[in-house]
Amino acid sequence: MYIFIGTLLELPYNNKIPAVIIIFVWSATVFLTRRGLWKIHISSTALFLYSSILICNTLGKTWYLYDKLYWILLAYTLGILIMKVDFGTWVYSIPFYIVVFTFLGGYYILKVDIDSFYSFNRNVLAMYIYSFASLSIIPVLVKARLSIIKEVITIILLVFTEFLTRSRAGLLVSILYSLVVLVYLGLSLRKRVKFTLSRGQTLSVIGILILGVGIFLWFIWWTIGNSRLATQGLGSNGRMAIYLTYFKNIDLNGFFFGDASIIQMVHHPHMHNSILQLLVSSGFIGTLPWLVILLIAFIRLLKISYTLIALFLLLFIYSSVEYFTLYKFGDFALIPLLVIAFTTVKTQSGKESLS
Questions:
Q1: Using an 8 Å Cβ cutoff, are 111 and 292 in contact?
Q2: C-alpha 133: how far from its chain's center?
Q3: Model pLDDT for residues 181-228, shown as the tens digit of each residue
């Protein structure tokens, strides 16, 4: 709730309020951190400050320090809350439903233009919606608590609202996300439910499942067929020109230490790619620690859950075409995944277990 309200009031872009909030949030994180997590806590703090200061130095805007730390510290605290405090998995769905129903109300009732909705353009709004949807499923996976109705409603609302935003990347990633969630729900049901049905009852259940899957696939086909994916495809978006500008104009000094002039060359506020944005703003010396951490987290998540890995990869896909993670609001999903990856321990049986 706080994240949603803070976003609408543009708190990250006010110098004083986020500074106070950062101190409060970080103090709460310290309070929630057990002794066994102090190494992770200290190293995370050092990394966040290190790359944030590099970004400030390169871009020459001190308010970036508040802006970047605001997003990433909130995301880190969310990860600690998911792991250490049992709020109930539904709590983490509140931001998603508030954003979605506010958007739908503004779109259908108030007739707000999509490109001026809360001063967001369609891509930013789509990223907010997807980030909150991803956040909502992570506690379900960590706590192993199945909530079929909530998750089905979430993926339907996610795909439909991403369709309305006209964001091609948002729609494509949301469809992939919905398939991941459906596979997870199906496998979970298979493991937990023992069916003792007659032949007729079994055929009825199979018929209902086929009908449900058919309706869902028709829904996906309809959204794609009526979206910009159908009319414009994945090309003609100008992103490749932005990426080529970086590789054509970056010099050795800019590669290692960052070069803010690249952003001016592309005539965009950012690079439409999270890794390139970090390279431009903090250089290779600021990007390398993150690349190492992401690689290690990927390997560790492979040992924990294939569904978590799928979420991780979807965030990577989205971040490859938008400035979505690494000091942005997509961190609400990415950083909790990193916290999960680095707070797992091996049990006596040798299996990975969430600590």
A1: no
A2: 8
A3: 988 888 887 766 555 666 676 677 678 778 888 888 888 888 988 888
| Amino acid at the residue 101 | F
**Contacts with 201 (C-beta within 8 Å, 6 or more apart), sequence order:** none
Amino acid identity for residue 267 in this structure? H
pLDDT in tens, 91-105: 888 889 988 888 888
Tell me what the mean pLDDT of segment 127-148 comes to.
87
CB 85 within 8 A of CB 142: no
Yes or no: say if 297 and 341 are a contact pair by the CB < 8 Å rule: yes
* pTM for this predicted structure: 0.86
Tell me how far CA of residue 171 lies from CA of 110, 164, 249, in angstroms: 23, 9, 32
Spatial distance between the Cα atoms of 18 and 347, rounded to a whole number of angstroms: 40
What are the residues facing 353 on neighbouring strands? 345
What is the per-residue pLDDT across 292-332, written as a single tens digit (0 to 9) for each? 999 999 999 998 889 999 999 999 999 999 999 998 889 99
